[in-house]
Automatic annotation (TrEMBL):
The keyword Cell membrane does not apply. InterPro entries: DtxR_MntR_Metal-Reg, Fe_dep_repressor, Fe_dep_repressor_sf, HTH_DTXR, Iron_dep_repressor, WH-like_DNA-bd_sf, WH_DNA-bd_sf. PANTHER family: IRON (METAL) DEPENDENT REPRESSOR, DTXR FAMILY, IRON-DEPENDENT TRANSCRIPTIONAL REGULATOR. Residues 63-117 form the Iron dependent repressor metal binding and dimerisation domain. Belongs to the DtxR/MntR family. Residues 3-54 form the HTH dtxR-type domain. Keywords: DNA-binding, Transcription, Transcription regulation. The lineage of its organism: Bacteria, Bacillati, Bacillota, Clostridia, Lachnospirales. Gene3D superfamilies: Iron dependent repressor, metal binding and dimerisation domain, Winged helix-like DNA-binding domain superfamily/Winged helix DNA-binding domain. One of its GO terms (molecular function) is DNA binding. This is Metal-dependent transcriptional regulator.
């Protein structure tokens, strides 16, 4: 795995915020994820160095590679959140636990689970 869970969560945050607001800045991610702006700036530098984002100083943009991973992480998160809520888990708990599940299950297990439950 090239990126860790936290870095994948940052990409997902960019993806979500972009869908909501169109433009994403570090301050938006800091507010959304309840982290300090210096922490976000450091993380964005790493993501940029690894080719997942472009920081054009006006906004953060996902590269093709970043878009693909962010979308995958977000789709998995939404799937597990919905599954947990259908099982009776409260939304806030489902959201937190889906965030863990999206990173832990392999792509193969995720696809097999989706197919089994479809």
């Amino acid at each position: 795995m090239e990126l860790g869970q936290v870095q994948e969560d940052y990409l997902e945050a960019i993806y979500i915020l972009r869908e909501k607001n169109g433009r994403v800045k570090c301050v938006h991610i800091a507010e959304y994820m309840e982290r300090s702006k210096p922490t976000i700036l450091t993380a964005m530098k790493v993501l940029e160095e690894k080719g997942y984002i472009i920081n054009d100083r006006h906004s953060l943009l996902l590269t093709e590679k970043g878009e693909k991973l962010a979308k995958r992480v977000h789709e998995r998160h939404q799937y597990f959140k919905k599954l947990l809520m259908l099982a009776g888990v409260e939304e806030e708990t489902a959201d937190k636990e889906a965030c863990v599940m999206e990173h832990v299950l392999s792509e193969d297990s995720y696809e097999k689970l989706k197919n089994y439950l479809a």
